[in-house]
Design goal:
Structural class: alpha+beta
Order of helices and strands: EEHHHEEEEE
Distance between the termini: 43 Å
Largest sheet: 7 strands, antiparallel
Number of strands: 7
Radius of gyration: 15 Å
Mean pLDDT: 85
Low-confidence stretches: none
Strand content: 35-45%
Shape: globular
C-alpha cells in the first residue's frame, strides 16, 4: 500500500491489486459509446497521466461508464473507477479535483463488482468529442 495525497484527498492505494482488477473487469454498456471513449482518451495530457498513474488508475477502463450526448458532436461521460485501498481524508461527492477537462470526486456507489478487498470509488465526468464514423444519432435511443 502506498499513501497518496492529491489536493484534499489522502488515500492509501494498493496499485498491484487495483491493476489486477483492471485486468479482470470488462466494461459493459453501449459498445459504440465505449469505443468512442477509448478513441477520445487515446492521447492523454501529461497532467492527467500523472494523476491516473499516482492512483494506479487505468483511465481506459472505468468500472462504470455512462454516456450522454450533448450539444454538437460531443458526448458527456460519467461513471467511476474502483481503487483497492482506503480513503483516509476527503469529502465525498464533491468535484474536488479537476485535471484538464476531467472532473474527479470520491463517490459512494453501490458496488457492481463483488470485492472482498477494501476499496473505494473515484467518480468522473468529462465531455469528449464524438470521433467515430457512425453518427451520434445512432447512440440516442
Amino acid at each position: 500500500m502506498v499513501e497518496v495525497r492529491i489536493e484534499d484527498w489522502k488515500l492509501t492505494i494498493d496499485k498491484e491489486k487495483t491493476n489486477a482488477l483492471y485486468m479482470t473487469h470488462l466494461q459493459a454498456g453501449d459498445p459504440l459509446a465505449y469505443q468512442n471513449f477509448l478513441l477520445a482518451n487515446e492521447k492523454l495530457d501529461e497532467e492527467l497521466l500523472h494523476f491516473s498513474n499516482s492512483l494506479g488508475l487505468n483511465l481506459q477502463q472505468p468500472t462504470l461508464l455512462n454516456a450522454f450526448p450533448v450539444d454538437g458532436q460531443q458526448i458527456m461521460y460519467s461513471g467511476y473507477y474502483t481503487v483497492c485501498g482506503a480513503i483516509v481524508e476527503g469529502e465525498m461527492d464533491a468535484w474536488d479535483v479537476i485535471v484538464g477537462e476531467h472532473c474527479f470526486s470520491l463517490v459512494e456507489e453501490e458496488p457492481i463488482l463483488a470485492l472482498t478487498e477494501p476499496h473505494f470509488h473515484i467518480g468522473f465526468e468529462v465531455v469528449l468529442p464524438w470521433l467515430l464514423p457512425q453518427t451520434l444519432e445512432l447512440t440516442k435511443k
